[in-house]
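Notes from hallway chat w/ T.B., transcribed later so I don't forget. T.B. wanted the structure written out for a chain they're using in a teaching module, and asked if we could keep both sequence and structure tokens in one place. Agreed to drop them here.
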Amino acid sequence: MCWTGAFAMKNKRKMWALMIGGILIVVLAVILRFTLAKPTEREPERPSVSHAAAATMEFAGGTGYKLITSEIGTLRTFDSLLLQPSEEEFSGEWVYRLVFNPKAAVLNGEEIVVLFGEKNLSINGQTYTGEDGVDYADILDWAAGKYKYLDYELIPYISGDGRDLEENQ
């Protein structure tokens, strides 16, 4: 082999070594960037009701509650409501109470309690309001519409005050 061929081989090896070294440096920089980055604050994940098997629905001025089983799909549209977590406290009394997977009807289900107030709603104790551009009144109208549409017979409360549903379940 002539000396020019050996010289070209050395340059090719150096070029490959530089390319591989450069790629390794870029990969390491990316890995370090993501491992050393501060974790971003994430909003609490809203529970999904898409797999709910049953629900109870109440109106604050009512004399009982509705147990929804066969038309549960109508209430699953709850997941599509445009809600965002809120720093506000849940205000006032609830107007509608919706319990997905109530303990009395769904064994081993995750109970999700939704309280619709006048100004915001609470899901398992976390307060939510409408996303930017969404009037909360429209969300409350959704609950009112579902309550009217689901024309089930009311199951009476034990004491009649509407607050003892847990005892009745």
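Follow-up for T.B.: The longest helix spans residues 3-36. Might be a good example for the class.
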